[in-house]
Amino acid sequence: MQSLTLGTIVKAINGELLRGDPESLITGIGRIKKHLYPQCLVFYYRSLYRVSFDEMLQKGIRAIVTQEQIDLQTVPEEIGVVYVPDLRKAYWGFIKYYRNLFDIPVIGITGTAGKTTTKEMIAHILQQRYHDIVYSYCSFNALDSKPRYILSIDNKTDAAVIELGLSGPTDIAIQSAYVQPTIGIITNIGIDHMEGCKTLENIIKAKGQIIKGMKKGGTLILNNDDENSKKLKLEQFDGKIIYFGINDKADISASNIQYTDIGMKFILHTVQETAELVIPGWGIHNVYNALAAIAACQLMGCSVNDIQAGLMQYREEMIHWPERCPLKTMAGINGSVILYDGVKSNIFSIEAALEVLKNIAGGRKIIAVMGDVQRVGQSVDESYEMVGKKVADANLDRLITIGKNAVQIGEVAVENGMEREKICYVNDLNHAALTLKKALDSNALVLVKITFIEGKRTSGLSLVHLLMK
User: If residue 4 lies in a helix (H) or strand (E), which one and from where to where?
Assistant: First the structure.
């Protein structure tokens, strides 16, 4: 955080300085215990009530902001006290004030799938040309993560890349109002978070709210091949729109897409140039992620050399917890190969995983192990039907589903042409492991795509470990 005087902050939040030096420097903002450090201004939420003022003094806290009537005699004289009538309003008001102190490029990214990957690609590319890039940590993209990223910006920051997550219909609107992107990216839009948004139409509307939060005259980057993105209401947007894609004509596009040992190779086409690029990470979905990242980075002056260098430094497994690592191959028993995918099992990621499985098989028999389809809300039948059809189209040699919910995947696959003899329904990971061990040999490639079983979070890595013994 850039240093500000206490008096400047008091004015920004419309507070009343009851005690303290208005010229004292504040170098950080705290609202939970682990964020208390020297020269910090503490927004005194109830979660901090168990932290004594003496402990705050020992930590070097400069001042507190409170909406409670505090007896000043109970607070050490070294700690300033600021009163506001509404603590939450004051806190978020300061976050917005602080964001507006900096006239820098801020890239905001939302979408149903690919947000984290696209964010990391952008950050790695920008680091080839700029020294100080602030960007979101892993896939922490909820509203409460935004102060951390915004307050990380200071006078040395060249740009920020911030992911905007969605759980409910107003989440993107609220987050983008604080982030205020100068460049907005919507990677794609599909069925996910249905428990909060209820319908696909509401999801489309919610994702589109990033547009309203963008800085005036900003640039919006959209997926030209995504049918739901074409339903966004763009009439009121007064900035520039850049389209990326593969299937339809777009400003940034890819052709001659090929699988390699490490990832994907393709020909990049932009208005200015054509170049061959390689990205680590399999799947057509990663080509789309790269195109979105390239569109943003070219706006910021990055060359093709910057882009290729940044993409090669990016590694998918480094941006997630181990159990949520996307599409990583591991050695299994009897010479088999395991393709583990820990990304949440929504329709987008299941389709992407099946596409990769089919394309890297190299003549081996292909097996898929699957649990629940996530975030379907009330659209259970529709979501499982879509996944079942994708499974049938994948021409699997074997499908194993775990738990009662996932049985629907197999039943829909049978309705769409998959032989019932190729499907096995099991109740738990141990049963799945016993079934798989009979089928795994040096000619087998097995996809493990499990994040939930019967509504409970379950790590597919637990099954992978059983298959590596």
Answer: strand 4-5
Question: What architecture is domain 102-318?
Answer: 3-Layer(aba) Sandwich (3.40)
Q: How far from 277 is each of 271, 290, 437, CA to CA, in Å?
A: 16, 10, 39
Give the SS3 label for residue 194: helix
Locus of tokens 């009343």? 16
State phi, psi for 116 to the nearest 5 degrees: -65, -45
Q: Which residues contact 380 (CB under 8 A, 6 or more apart)?
A: 408
CA atoms of 220 and 183, how far apart (whole Å)? 6
Burial of 53 (0-12, 13-18, 19+ CB in 10 A): middle
Q: How is 132-159 classified by DSSP, letter by letter?
A: -EEE--TT--SGGGHHHHHTT--TT--E
pTM passes above 0.85 = yes
φ/ψ of 386, rounded to 5, equals -60, -45
Q: What is the fold, at CATH topology level, of the domain defined by 4-85? A: 3.40.1390
Domain residue ranges of the chain, discontinuous segments joined by +: 4-85, 102-318, 322-467
Closest CA to 462 of 424, 423, 433: 433
How wide is the angle at C-alpha 219 spanned by C-alphas 214 and 222, nearest 5°?
100
Instruction: Evaluate whether the domain defined by 322-467 bears CATH number 3.30.360.10.
Output: no
For the chain, 469 residues long, the average pLDDT of each consecutive 10-residue run is 98 98 96 86 84 91 94 94 97 98 98 94 97 92 94 98 94 97 97 80 95 96 97 94 92 97 95 93 96 98 96 73 79 96 90 96 97 73 91 97 95 97 96 95 97 88 88
